[in-house]
Amino acid sequence: MYEKPRFFHAGDQGLVMELGDSINVELNQRVYNLQVAIEKAEIPGVFDFMPTYRSVLIYYDPSQTSAKNLEDTLIQIDKNVDQDYKEPTVLIRIPTMYGGEYGPDLEFVAHHANLTTDEVITLHSKNEYLVYMVGFSPGFPYLGGLDDKLHTPRLDTPRTEIPAGSVGIADSQTGVYPIASPGGWRLIGRTPLSLFDHKREPPTPLRSGAYVQFEPIQSEREYQKIETEVQKGIYTIATEQM
Amino acid sequence: MSISTIEIQEPGLQTTVQDKGRYGYQRYGVPVSGAMDPFALRAANILVGNNDNDAVLELTALGPKLLFKNPTWVAITGANLSPTINRKPISNWETLKIEEDDILAFGPPKDGMRAYIAIAGGIDVPQIMGSRSTYLKGDFGGFEGRALQAGDVVSTLSSGDREYIKRRLPTEMSPPNYGETHDLRVIMGPQESYFTTKGVSTFLESTYTVSMDSDRMGYRLDGPSIEHVDSADIISDGTPFGTVQIPGDGTPIILLADRGISGGYTKIATVISADIGKLGQAMPGNKLNFESVSLEEAYDAYNNQENTLIQIAETIVTADSINQFTIAINEQIAEVADSSGKPLATLLPHWKPGSGKQHKVTASVNDKIHEFDVEIGFAE
To answer: Does the beta carbon of B238 lie under 8 angstroms from any beta carbon of chain A?
Structure first.
């Protein structure tokens, strides 16, 4: 973490406010506090922002403000953030069917870790993962906190199509694909939840600063039951304030 | 009639509904999308009296064939894709009257890659996350989340009690000529320090070619490799429109309207807002040169472009304006331009040769005498 935020120009409508240059929970917590403060401040001329692991990219209209003015405002906002205070966030529970056709790489991950598939499931569903940022594709969360034993390299050749809801591992990261897309992650399971829906506001419950926990689904029947409820629009995603 | 209906008879190569883009949802991983040439989008809207963020059609290289079921008015901006109304050539960058059953079609692309058709009232598609822009990869936004197909019927929102007003570019402004080489001004950074001095000068002094591997997400460029100090990887951060990513192999990728909103490669520079439109008009095979400018220069260029749009809104053509006429030579409607390429006459789509004032003209070329019937037609 830097002593003072660093600023970089991303064109004439973008200002990067960088708080550090590493991936860790403490730094990401500062980014979360900062983005909540930016959201609340409603800075004139700011029309969008993008929080990441260690920075926020602020988009502004140069006819309403300048990078210099914005920098001063942001430094002030950051100073006023009480870093001992943790902005409230949510834990999102994601029911997941592990293995079989839902997670074709579960065996590989178990073999690689020298564990049984059951042990992989227990380890993977035990932790509360921090959403460091959302990116790559709509609603895709970069999750931190994967157990060291489960670190597994990516596929040598990425799959051209991964079904929506797939839960995977790539090196030290774990994540879930909210929409179908190509990808090289090792797939260990799938959730029947619809984690990105462009008709919903907001379109995904996943946002940087939130936490995620995967909950094993015990039977195909249970998976189908949830899937049906999701399709009918009657399933409520379990969230918990934290 | 304040709502118009348009039947898509031929879809063109890739015709999508776009506005200025989907802002406020990058934190949820949602790409911005929107027009590849935002200046042309806004100008088209202003020319028909719309709000500058209203939805228009973005055409790609080969335009569609559209049947208008109602009288309205339109403006076409951006690339010159040889537009015609009822097979008669018409001009870009001005308001054009449309009558019931008119057919707006396009021919060979002459200059630029993407044209915009604004229709009075703006295209009526649902707003998804505050925008009508199509995001093709996500299958949402625009017309059912996809490019238009033959047989689709598109409607506009009501243009209210607005009346037809003819607008065009201010006389001192020539229509853009995109050409095949695009000089783009950039602000260096945000990761300029990840490149060697040699790498930065390679980037600024070389000419790069837009490769075939290019679409609304980004252009991959061919050209000299750009040297990093060490690694090409950063901890993923935000990626604005026009940012130039340099992955490990040193070959640039420029990120565009449908880009992912974050990325893990170093970004050497970002194209300034005033030049984004030009960038969006580049086609595979075109050449790109980059010039580093200060933030102040970029702001000045931005403000100039905003002023141009205000001037377009204010340039109203009245009936007695001198160039409200069409010229026909030997009964064929002709595009007549002065030595700078600026059109001398408007191409009035509903005028027919035979009803105007006839003139006999002779000209000698290499001692051979040529005779022409020149006819000047005025708006009916």
So the answer is: yes
pTM of the model: 0.88
Contact B325, B301 (CB under 8 A): no
Assess contact for B112 and B359: CB atoms under 8 A.
Answer: no
Taking only the tens of pLDDT, chain A with its 242 residues reads 899 999 999 999 999 999 999 989 999 999 999 999 999 999 999 999 999 999 999 999 999 999 999 999 999 999 999 888 888 899 999 999 999 999 999 999 999 999 999 999 999 999 999 999 998 889 999 999 999 999 999 888 889 889 999 999 998 889 999 988 888 899 999 999 999 999 999 999 998 999 999 999 999 999 999 999 999 999 999 999 98
How does DSSP classify residue A199?
A: T
Assembly ipTM: 0.91
Option in B26, B29, B267 nearest A136 (CB): B29
List chain A residues with CB under 8 Å of B237. Answer: 16, 18, 50, 52-55, 57
**What ranges in chain B are assigned the alpha helix state H?**
38-47, 197-205, 273-280, 295-314
Q: Is A206 on the interface with B (CB under 8 A)?
A: yes
* Stretch 342-371 of chain B: residues touching chain A, C-beta under 8 Å: none
DSSP 3-state of A33: helix
B 87-126 → A contacts, CB under 8 A: none
User: How close is the nearest chain A Cα to the Cα of B26, in Å?
Assistant: 6
Compute the distance between CA of residue A136 and CA of residue B265 in angstroms, rounded to an integer. Answer: 12
Dihedral angle sign, alpha carbons of residues B15, B16, B19, B25: negative
**Residues whose CB is less than 8 angstroms from the CB of residue B77 and which lie 6 or more positions away in sequence, other chains included:** B40, B41, B43, B44, B47, B92, B93, B115, B116, B118
Nearest chain A CA: its distance from B253 CA (Å): 15
